[in-house]
């Protein structure tokens, strides 16, 4: 980025003592619309910059990530997002170790590896398990978005009966009071939500998709995400289908993870790395930020050799609703058609950020 933007790590001395909020130099997400075009930045931020000499974008997320922008800005944002931005060295090193252990070998030659690890790619000590592996171990990364907050906010039901309903309602009242207030004036049917594809996939539903696509019991699966709602009991149908299921906590020791323990975003960075480096990446919620950004990264750097499985939840709900009258062969055929639909190259829809869908 040196030829395009001057980047510094600290403000000049004459600006360091300023209270940026007090002098009106702070610009928040509320000041810039989500799909802002360059002209909005000129109207909003440029006068502040000219007056105070500095602008602080606070909570700045996804801005200038949408169409349309001039070609020079398009090139600049792609260079920035897909080439210049890197994880901190300690994240790169730990991520390299994680992927190395998942693969069982030290060789990391792909374009994805170069982008993710740079000069912080670790070499496996001589004699460590994997010297005679005969090539990289293949693994599938599955991002399960089935944490309690996701489940509660969805307003869907997952077979847990009255106990589940009470538990999730209590969680909503504590963590999503605005949602609870809004629900007092509207009626939401869990059945209707499911038919619309608005319910997160359970681990079992995700496992059935993989089985229908032909992934056998020996498939090695890395599971990304936080604590699954329902714990081991909820995961049991998936682990019965795929016993070789691991997480970052299984691959890295508690001592290795200790520096990241209290930083959820840094732990998520490890999941990003493991998912981006996988042979196949399976998504259960296309609206998830991590899944979407991993998918975009794989499209940009994967050179057509980094497949991502995107189920259409609405179509999948229709397939599952016929569970009593559909044979396994028919289920396989419809699931494969559903997943193949995503693979078609199409224009990026309006409102879809370029970082999540780099193809135009």
Automatic annotation (TrEMBL):
InterPro entries: FucosylTrfase_pln (IPR024709), GDP-Fuc_O-FucTrfase (IPR019378), GT106_glycosyltransferase (IPR052272)
GO cellular component: membrane
Protein name: O-fucosyltransferase family protein
Principal subcellular localisation of the protein: membrane
Recorded GO MF terms: glycosyltransferase activity
GO biological process, one term: fucose metabolic process
Keywords, in A-Z order: Carbohydrate metabolism, Fucose metabolism, Glycoprotein, Glycosyltransferase, Membrane, Transferase, Transmembrane, Transmembrane helix
Family: Belongs to the glycosyltransferase GT106 family.
Membrane topology: Single-pass membrane protein
Keyword hit for Transcription regulation: no
A UniProt-annotated Pfam family: O-FucT
Subcellular location: Membrane
